[in-house]
Amino acid sequence: MKLFIYKTLFAAIIFFVLFQITISATVNKFKENISYLSSDENKNLIKNKLRKELNSAIKKENYLNEEDKKLIKQFLDKVKKELE
Amino acid sequence: MNKKKNYNLIVYSLFVSLFILGTLTFRDYGIGIDDKFQRYSGLYWLNYLLSFTNFDGLQEVVKLKLLETSDHTLPSIDGWKFYGIFFDVPAAILELIFKLDNPKDYYELRHYLNFLFYFVGCIYFYKILDLRFDRFISFFGTCFFILSPRIYGDGFYNMKDIVFLTFFVISYYYCFKCFINFNIKNLILLAIFSAISIETRILGLSIPLSFLSFYLFTVLAKPSEIKILYKTFAYLFFTLIFVVLFWPYLWSAPIENFLVVIKSSQNFILSAYVFFNGEYFNNDYLPYSYVPLWILMTTPVLHILTFFIGITYGLKRLYFRLINIEKNQLSYDLWRGVKEKYDLFILLNFLVFFLLIILLNIRLFTAWKHLYFLNFYLVYIAVLGLNIIYIWSKKLKKKIILSISLIFISLFIVFEMIKYHPYQGLYFNTFVPKNFKNKFEIDYLALSARHFFDKIFELEKNDNKIHIANASWTPLIRTLDIYSETEKQKIELVGQNYGAAKYIYSNNISEVDKRHNNKYDIPKGFIKLYEYKVEDLLLYTVYKRKL
Fold first, then answer.
1. Of the candidates B442, B468, B491, which is a domain's last residue?
2. pTM for this entry
3. B18: which residues sit within 8 A by CB, 6+ positions away?
4. Containing domain of residue B393, as a range?
5. Coil, strand or helix: which one is A80?
6. ipTM exceeds 0.85, yes or no
7. CA–CA separation, B475 vs B365, rounded Å?
8. CB-CB under 8 Å, B284 with A35
9. A-chain residues within 8 Å CB-CB of B326?
């Protein structure tokens, strides 16, 4: 009986430690990522990145290359035609 | 006989020196950001206690002081009602007795009282070692405890963690006394100090829990020990009674409010970003290395080395006890004598706490300040390691070499602590590279803010208003309290309104991730005026508007 209690206790501790460093650690990492994505810091980061991209787009003489220009024009013409 | 006298003289000299040192230096320490809250909490509970008496005049004075104390940076007392009263209320009473109205005086009184608590903790630590080890080890072990720079420094202004550490140590002393002699006197004293520890910090609950667990181990090994079950229940019962008695928060609804405390303990520490190893981490998701790295960096190397010897020895001994359980019929399963029981009690408590804190991702900040009670275990296990070295040295007849080495290393730590004065609470050991130290949050309690204001008053001797912006989370307004009304009037704190500021105060304390949030970025138009460093630790930086 005595040995059984000690062994159970030992097994429970090992199980707890293993659970925490494997499953629980993964869940925590996942929770941390979600928390970071919805945090104010991340929202600010995205907003700032967007501002930076818009600014660099304005400063560039030609933002689109010839191929993209053609493609977007064709696409817009198609949509326009369908809407008419 | 003469040897014993000489030894007692050396021990007394150690404590007298510590007492004199603390008495002479307690005024040197800065005013931490917690000082104001602790005072507020003390006055709040004193007002509550006075409401049961007829001292109406006194209560009016306390109420007036409460009104004067509140400011926008202080959290509402309703959210923090469960703080213990064993330090704060006596401090508030002493403030009234000595009629202290000058903030500098009543804060310094609290610092001195804080030191006295720490001092009592050191005495009890010595008493614990004296129960377990021989005189040589008890003396040097106490030196280890005193020469823990972070604990020593905080002994002057940390009114929560150091007070808890002291009651924790006293509880363990009576716990050990109960292991030798479980009589009614030791039982009641253990119950009283367990209750005070629980009231000071809910983590004090570990004391009755571990005591109970060890009783179960005892019964498991020797079923005849069941005969003292009633004493164990008596201890738990008295602890419960004293917890309610000593904790005014529980008086109105003991069970309900106790459950509130347990529930709130999960959010006891604020959720914020912490600067750790050069990165900002949300303290809900700290890396596993947080506590071990902080302890390794801020504990003297001597303590760390002897700790590893002690823990290896303790674990090895436990392993052999476990594998020999069946063979052993005469004594207890996990320990032989009472001294071994003390060691195991400390070792298992340390391992349980350490594993739970790391694996359960407990929310922490300000280094390992909230875990300073672990220093008791750390130093005890280090002393166990020292004892092993001492036994080897005696066998090899090299005791004198060990004594000289210990004196030499202790003096080196003393020298280090002098270099850090009055910032021993921010100590990093000699093995931490210079540049690495500043990758961590340093002066969380803003002890250096006093130095900052002194410097500003020195720079601005005219009568003009000085507008100061704050590029950190530090509530500078709380330090300003200790200055005269004229000086306070001269300072205008403008928060993060940098446009209105002449000076900007900055440090690495931030509740947001500075990489993605620019609220603490220093705007253009300011130049660095000076940096305040102690032993390569950058405590704060001041920027001045370009003319």
1. B442
2. 0.92
3. B119, B122, B146
4. 269-442
5. helix
6. no
7. 16
8. yes
9. 3
